[in-house]
Amino acid sequence: MNLPERFILVDDDPINNLIIEHQIKTKISTDIEILSFESPQDGFDYITSYNDSKTGAQTVLFLDLNMPIFSGWDFLEKLENLDHKITNQLTIYVSSSSLDNRDIDRANKIDLVKEYLIKPLTAERLIGLFN
Amino acid sequence: MPMNANFEEVQEGVQTQTKQNQGAWELDFSTGNFLWSVEMFNLLHCHPSSNKITQGFICDLFSDSEGVKIIDWFRSLKSGLEIKPLDVVFVSDANIQKHIRWTAGIFRDTFGKIQKAIGTVQDVTTFKDDETKLVQYKHFFYGSNDLNCIANVHGYFEKVNQKFTDLLGYSELDLVENSFLNFIHPDDIAGTLKEIEKLKGGAITLNFCNRYRKKNGDYVWLDWTSKPDTASGKLYAIARDITERINYENNLVHLNEELENKVAQRTKEIEFRKKYYEAIITNSNEAIMTLDVKGNILYQSPTAAKITGYSEKELLNKEASFLGKSLLMFEAHLNELKRNEGASMPVEFKIKHKKGQDIWIEGNIINRLQSKNIKAYIFNFNEITHRKESEIALRQSELKLKKAQDIANFGNWELRIDTGEMIWSEVACRIHGFLKTETKQNFSTWISLIHPDDLNFVIANIKLVQETVKPISFPYRILLKNKSVRYVNLDCFFEFDSLGGIQKINGIVNDVTDEKQAEKEMLLSQMFTRGVLDSLTSQIAVIDKSGLVKETNKAWDAFRTVNGETLLTRTESGTNFIEICKNQKYSEEETSHKAIEGINAVFKNKLDEYQYEYPLNLANGVHWFLMRITKFKQDKSMVVLSHGDITQRKIAELLTKKTANDLMYRNRELEQFAYMVSHNLRAPVANLIGLTDILIHNNLSDDKVKETTKGLFKSANRLDEVIKDLNHILQVRGHANEKKEIIYFDKLIKGIESSVSTLFDNSNLVVKTDFKAINKHLIVKSYLHSIFYNLIINSIKYRSNLRQPLVEIKTEVNNKNLVIRYKDNGIGFNMSRDKDNVFGLYKRFNPEIEGKGIGLYLVKLQVELIGGTIKLESEPDKGAEFIIEIMN
């Protein structure tokens, strides 16, 4: 199992964050650092200030799309403009309840996005990501 | 003053006089002795005395000024300076004035010293006078306005004055060196020589005229007065230039001649004219007679004689008996004309020629009784027998033709009143359906053949004829043996007996069945067309170029009575459609304008057919009409306006259009709905699945179970909310079919304020409205309410904490559309960022403020459902302005 150093969750829906946190802790590891942000701006600010990767191990970002004002798309656009040193440490999963193909296609076209995950993120699916 | 003296001669005369009246004197300067001869004393009117002659003595003799001159003169002599003679004036005691001349000579001694002077004193008065005269003569001679000269009998000028040279243009030398005969007109030389001969004999020339040639070749007339000096052969002459006078006289003579010529010519002309007129009268075909006031013939022209056959002799001084029976009429005419000089009357008479045949004359009588040269009636005439005969012949042939026609179509009968006998013509028999030989020609037959339906009418008419004794004409039907019905026209008139009673009734009967039939058919076809026209449901009117409504059908008239006050109401037959259209206002203004436009376009051949569709508010709702204007094929000066109700078609059309719009809208909505389902509906569902997954696959602590269950509850609630929103939105759509009603904006806003008064109070929101432009609108109430409600809630939610919340609502009209401006002073929108999503469903722009992102979505949805558009203008932190435009 190739585990990341930490998880960052950005979703304005606290229930969704709760679900993912619980699944990580129960199915992946209880020790991995998990940072949840309901405000996309706070999440973004954290990422830009974060540059102390000691192990070179990856940070996994679960990013919601449908958020007011600062949407997942805005978030991705801003990340693309950041230094690669930062973005290289990130493995980004878009996590959305939208089944709309237009959203899925659009997300897959962005290099930074590793995969488009349709909510809910089940335990099975989560384990599959790191095997 | 005639110039009869030569001034040189005067000079000579003076010299002779000088030798007389001369005294001598001697003055010895050394002794002062002054000796005078006796003549001196005589000259100066004084006597020798014992006293010495001194300066003082001399001064006493002369006036002071003259004395001084003399003293000075002697002083000069003494000094040897002056020896010129001195002239002084002497006035004697008897007041005789003399001119005195002192002369002197000087004697010197052996040393050259002046010893004495010897001199003379002369009386030079005559000489002085002549000298003055000479100056005057010279002035006269040279300065005179006349031409003055001195010539001689040999034919030369000796002296000429400037006038002479000025007039003739030659120099004095030219004139003096050549014989004056050279300058004289050749025709006048002989006369001039003769005149010189007379002068030689001592005669004076007075007013002798001759012509002199000027240098430029023109001649001038000179009138001479001259006096000879027979001794010297000199001629003293004065000439005057009388050219102008001569010319004037010549002109006068010429004018006189001309006048005389003209008079002569005129006389000749008049004589010629007189002869000319006489010739015309004599030779013309117009016969002329003049008659005196009593009507007796004074003169007749040869033509008149030719026409009547009577010679002038036979008629002269007799009444115009040749007129025969027409004489009385003729005399009546004369009498009628008598009072009016110049009055005339055209006449036409049939008279008897002397030889007995009838002739026709046509002419004119004019009253010239007062005319100075005529004093008679003038009767001029032509013979028109030939013309008259052809006229009569023509009339007769016309009559024959008419008769021929009558035979074909007209029959006649006569009814004798006394016997009741009735005679029918052949045609009359034929018309009534039997042969003349059938001997049914009686009154009862006639009555029996009258159509029973018309019998009473015919009998009534016949009775009327008998009572009024006036001709009558009327149509009726006859029923023939063979049961066929014919239309006849009957003309009735009478013949009277000698006592004035009715003898016969004449009837002219004419079969008019064919005409009647044609008329009937025409009427039928007209009625048919009219019937068709009237059974049409379209409103139809025929309009002429001036706009006059010539004809309308029943539908047009019915439209007026059924539909009340519309354009057609005012345009019945006989009114002017264009004028009425011009005065239409409000809702029918445009239709009227289009109608005029269409009529003009069709009349001007720009269009064959003009069509215009328009809606009209009638009692039972809005109807659509099609106005069609086409040419009236039978008469180019008119157009046909047909007007039909096309509401059904229009509704179908509009429905199709609406369906297409609705489909588009629904499609867009479906897309939005699909999006909503995938995002907003699925989000809570995803949570529900996620949470249940946790519950199922894990052995959870009680706390964890509690937490997860709470999440489940929350997600389920949220799912419910989304479903409720969806329902709401779908319900909004359903309102589209709700009935429109008139909404007053002010009331609506008041209502919203009171329904959410708590929110108003908490936020201190102030709403200002301006509905001056429009305060009411026909609209679906729930939509307008929802639009304002959502906007106001939005303004409250997103108010700025920095200022008193204020909403301003205003209505305007733009291109007939209603415009609502809704403006707040809240936190506003970041339009550069959110422009595309402002009205999107579940689009939220401020995470700090509670909201689902459905309000503005609903506003836009509803604005569009009532056929409007919405725009937003906003800047962050300055407020927002929504501009809603609702199409009319």
Provide keyphrases for this structure:
heterodimer, A: 131 residues, alpha/beta, Rossmann fold, five-stranded parallel β-sheet, globular, B: 888 residues, alpha+beta, Beta-Lactamase, five-stranded antiparallel β-sheet, 27 helices, 32 strands, 27% strand, disordered N terminus
Structure explained in plain terms:
- The complex is a heterodimer of chains A (131) and B (888).
- With 131 residues, chain A is of the alpha/beta class.
- Chain A has a single domain (6-129), classed as Rossmann fold, CATH 3.40.50.2300.
- Chain A has helices spanning 14-27, 40-49, 72-80, 84-87, 101-108, 123-129; strands at 6-10, 33-37, 59-63, 90-96, 113-118.
- Chain A has a five-stranded parallel beta sheet with strand order 2-1-3-4-5, with helices on both faces.
- Chain A is globular and about 30 Å long.
- Chain B is of the alpha+beta class and 888 residues long.
- Chain B has six domains: 7-130, PAS domain (Beta-Lactamase, 2-Layer Sandwich); 144-241, Beta-Lactamase (2-Layer Sandwich), CATH 3.30.450; 284-383, Beta-Lactamase (2-Layer Sandwich), CATH 3.30.450; 403-518, PAS domain (Beta-Lactamase, 2-Layer Sandwich), CATH 3.30.450; 536-645, PAS domain (Beta-Lactamase); 738-886, Histidine kinase-like ATPase, C-terminal domain (Heat Shock Protein 90, 2-Layer Sandwich), CATH 3.30.565.
- Chain B is built from 27 helices and 32 strands.
- In chain B, the strands form seven sheets. Chain B has a five-stranded antiparallel beta sheet with strand order 2-1-5-4-3, sandwiched between helices.
- In chain B, strand 16 (410-416) and strand 17 form a beta hairpin.
- The two termini of chain B are 122 Å apart.
- Residues 1-19 of chain B have low confidence and may be disordered.
- The interface between A and B is medium-sized, with 25 and 30 residues.
